[in-house]
Amino acid sequence: MEHLELFFKAIFIDNMVFATFLGMCSYLAVSKKVSTAVGLGAAVIFVMAITVPLNWLLDQYLLQEGALSWLGEEYADYDLSFLSFIMFIATIATMVQLVEIIVEKFSPSLYNSLGIFLPLIAVNCAILGGSLFMQSREIPTLGLAFNYGISSGIGWFLAILAIAAIREKIRYSNVPAPLRGLGITFIITGLMAIGFMSFGGMLTGGDEKEETTETASIEVVAPSQESSITEEVETVVDSTTINEPQIIE
Amino acid sequence: MGLLSKKDAKLITDPLADNNPITIQVLGICSALAITADLKASIVMAIAVLFVLAIGNVVISLLRNIIPSKIRIIVQLIVVAALVIIVDIILKAFAYELSKTLSVFVGLIITNCIIMGRFEAFALANGPWRSFLDGIGNSLGYGVILVIVGFFRELLGSGTLLGIKVLGDPIEKTGVYAYGYENNGFMLLAPMALITLGIIIWVQRSRNKALIEN
After folding, report:
1. A249 domain residue, yes or no
2. Between residues 9 and 38 of chain B, which touch chain A (CB distance below 8 Å)?
3. pTM above the 0.95 mark?
4. Is B196 inside a domain boundary?
5. ipTM of the complex
6. Distance between CA B76 and CA A116 in Å, rounded?
7. Is A180 in the same domain as A208?
8. Is residue A190 domain-shared with residue A226, that is, in the same domain?
């Protein structure tokens, strides 16, 4: 049950792109075409599934306060957590390099499709962010850390897929000239983030009921304002769901 | 500008507007958006990036002939990580509350694309003094955008600037609140950072038509 909860939470509620803005650089740079977006997204899932559990082990048995106690009594009060940035990034950079070599050796076809994206990943904030959030949220077991890595990767994958599909379509629309390209992408991402905020109530069953009664009482005060906001959210959600079948094709 | 030649001064002024790292080069967006809900955090983040980028550029530029090109990414990451640890420890010592609000985003300076981008594009090919100026220029360009976004989000979202209530007290209805003004809490949420940045880009590109993309 807690696995399932973490899985959905990491994909929808704490989505890497829409809730914490991680990996925005490659998200904006590589989302011009759906096919390249799929390649990079898959590579991110792959690398996160490896690095998050690996960094969890490092954190548990090397970096945390008292983590070195397995070496013996006298090491029990060492606290190496100030080294975590350097350890995490070194692990990620080495793993990316290793994965690149292994994939090149055993599956040249996969290497050709992922190849160019793998070096990019070492500096993707989503990967380091995954490990740092894993540390600051104190994920308790190795299995959950693995789950967290995969599901935040999937969340990032979904986000880049959706924006790539929208950007492919938006080429046929008449966007004001100064907004073309980067500007409109930012605004669309903002609207998609508003849409993703509606997932916020997904896991808080009891709290959600309280919230609805609250909004109901507000609605009595200002009905027009409230309904216009919900309408906007609904249209955003609709547009993302409309786009998803196109992606699968 | 007696100290700097014209070419050197351009290294600082260019990234401030026409070659801004955020709005034109599209680098370093991640942290630009996440921590701009109030002005103070934006300013501290800008200073932290200034420190890391200026010193990091000098270090990489000094090492540029020694680093084998195959492992340069790892070397660059280690240099940045060491500098970021220094920033993190200083923040924890002198501004503990603020380091809690910035949380993991201080650590994420390591993967801030501006830093890797400037190392790759500039410091590996230029001398230490020019790299230092380039680092200052680019981090100032980054800081300007951060401060603009932070300014609008804090002013419209909570009616304060640096924690000072510039628009009056919302509870006692003084200042503009006496005329029925309300804070727009939506500005404090994540999506509005993206939309604010989109609007900044819009304004900048309609003022300078040369920047418009096809």
Report:
1. no
2. 23, 26-31, 33-34
3. no
4. no
5. 0.80
6. 19
7. no
8. no
Number of domains in chain A: 2
Radius of gyration of chain A (CA): 21
Contact: A128, B82; criterion CB under 8 Å: no
Are A82 and B89 spatial neighbours (Cβ–Cβ below 8 Å)?
yes
* Burial state string for A212-233 with b = 16 or more CB within 10 A and e = fewer than 16: eeeeeeeeeeeeeeeeeeeeeb
| Number of CB atoms found within 10 A of residue A141's CB | 13
Tokens of residue B101, six digits: 């609000």
Nearest to A89 among B77, B189, B195 (CB): B77
pLDDT tens series, chain B, 214 aa: 456 677 777 777 777 777 777 777 777 777 777 777 778 888 888 888 889 888 998 988 888 888 887 777 788 888 888 898 888 888 888 888 888 877 677 877 887 778 888 887 888 888 888 888 888 888 888 888 888 888 888 888 877 787 777 777 777 777 777 777 777 778 888 788 888 888 888 888 888 777 776 6
Which residues from chain B sit within 8 angstroms of residue A176, using beta carbons? 202
Number of domains into which chain B is organized: 1
Same domain, A137 and A60: yes
Q: Which residues constitute the domain of residue A26?
A: 2-198
